[in-house]
Design a protein that fits this description.
With about 375 residues, the chain is of the alpha/beta class. The chain has 2 domains: about 230 residues, Aspartate Aminotransferase, domain 2; about 120 residues, Aspartate Aminotransferase, domain 1 (Alpha-Beta Complex), CATH 3.90.1150.10. Helix content is about 40%, strand content about 15%. The protein has 12 helices and 14 strands. The radius of gyration is 21 Å and the shape is globular. About 45% of the residues are buried.
Amino acid sequence: METLPTISYVAIAEQFADERDELMPIIESVLASGNYVGGPAIGRLEEEVARFVGVKHCIALNSGTDALIFGLKCLGVGPGDEVITPPNSFIASTGAIVHVGAKPAFVDVGGDQNMDAERIEAALTSRTKAIMPVHLTGRICDMDPILALADKHGLAVIEDAAQAMGASYKGRKAGSLGNLGCFSAHPLKIFNSCGDCGLVTTDDDEIAQRLRRLRNHGLVDRDTVVEFGFVSRMDVLQAEILRYRLPRLGQIIKTRKKNVALYRQLLDGEIAFIPPDKDYEDNTFTMFVAQVDRRDELQRRLKDNGVGSAVHYPTPLHLQPAAKGFGYKLGDFPMVERQSRRILSLPHHQFLTEGQIRRVCGLIKAFYR
């Protein structure tokens, strides 16, 4: 019996093979320079990302988690405060809130998996300090009502745009809508480095200045510390890799959109629910998530036939063991909980062929038949 080749969920090795001839001289140049921390390359990346996002400042850090933690600090969020956010993100979103001493105030989501803006006002209390919308899978939240609500109540808005580099909402890029935006450039992101990296974007001069201090021990020069900071500098090697990949991002997004369009064509609503794109949003599809019945069985069937997939994320944050102290329970956020049992991230990366996508869809259709 013929064994068909596997279809990987991620394509990190394929990406390197595609880029190798151009990327290796860049890597060798950095290693030969002996300048691995700080310097002009970091500034150049920051300028290029700020221009791409459409803001005044970009600050390069060593992870998207630090971007969130430092961003919250710079917005004045601390002990006793509450931050509105959804419970269906990666743990880093809520973890950042906890690490600054604040408490997450969860809000349920809509059918598109993003926070339901209409539910936010009911979650506000006298302790609410900020709103953290999460642009899940590369789709920006409906930001106009969120921004209007924040303005009405004097709240800060910090965009968790970890998965949304390049996405846009009514013509504005992720990371340019709130007081600041936080990105991850982890290897699994659509705009990816070869390690942990993060970015913060903002138009606020004072926040940008403080972020640059915080990432470097709180130093304003070699010998003067104005506040105790951290070590969260992006390595020069990662910065140069990201500089190389930024101009290629548009084509990657275009290819992924084409792949998702084929999935939509082949998997009708009776088989899977694929949240439709609204006319004012531009989804970059860091992940492509379908909502299906008998998800776990389907995932096993795909695996048995050599098809990789993932679940983002199987246990909502309010039901994680670490979140017991917040007082939430099963049933508090029914949409998130229902989706957590149905969501399945399918392979859609830029190195897939049409035949491979048709094979995945054929397996899914055969499973439900």
